[in-house]
Amino acid sequence: MIWNSNTTIGNSRENLACDLLRLVASKIFAARVSGAAAGSIEAAMEPDRRSWTPSSIVLVTAGVTLIGTGVYFLLLRPPLLPEDIRYMALPPAQFDILRPRLEVWLTHVFRVMGGYVLATGVLMVTLAVMSFRQHSTPAAIGALIGGVASIGWMAVVNFLIDSDFKWVLLAMALLWAVSLVLFWVEKPDRVRS
Questions:
Q1: pTM of the model
Q2: What does the pLDDT read at residue 132?
Q3: Structural domain harbouring 4
Q4: CA dihedral 121, 127, 128, 133 (to 10 degrees)
């Protein structure tokens, strides 16, 4: 199937993430094609900064995992998981009284959180595609701060509460950390040549 701008996004919850990735890929492809067609002497003299570095590929992967996590929190996550109920350690009679209102409130909380996680993933992918692969130091500093404040802290908290998902979140955080290590190991002159 050829994807174009007339294709409906998100025919189902399962296809939403794939459709969003296709949209991003088509926009990147269109930008690269139009950039090649509109080449100038100055552009020919500039070093090729569009090459994909290992650090940018890993950062894109980390961003895509965040996008998927955001979609999960927005559309699929139930308000209460078995681990949530275990963590509260309430007697069943007390919990049954709280459950209806708690579920309504947590549904709103997780939708907001999902939107922020999805947005963080989109921004991480954009950063990797635009500035990170050009080996921009401010981009790396932004990725460092953004990663610590988002997936890094989320992984730490999930270990503190002994979440069932702590290892998945640690793997996601490690993807982000590996991209930064690769960024600092890569030589800027090799990246740009």
A1: 0.69
A2: 87
A3: 1-46
A4: -170
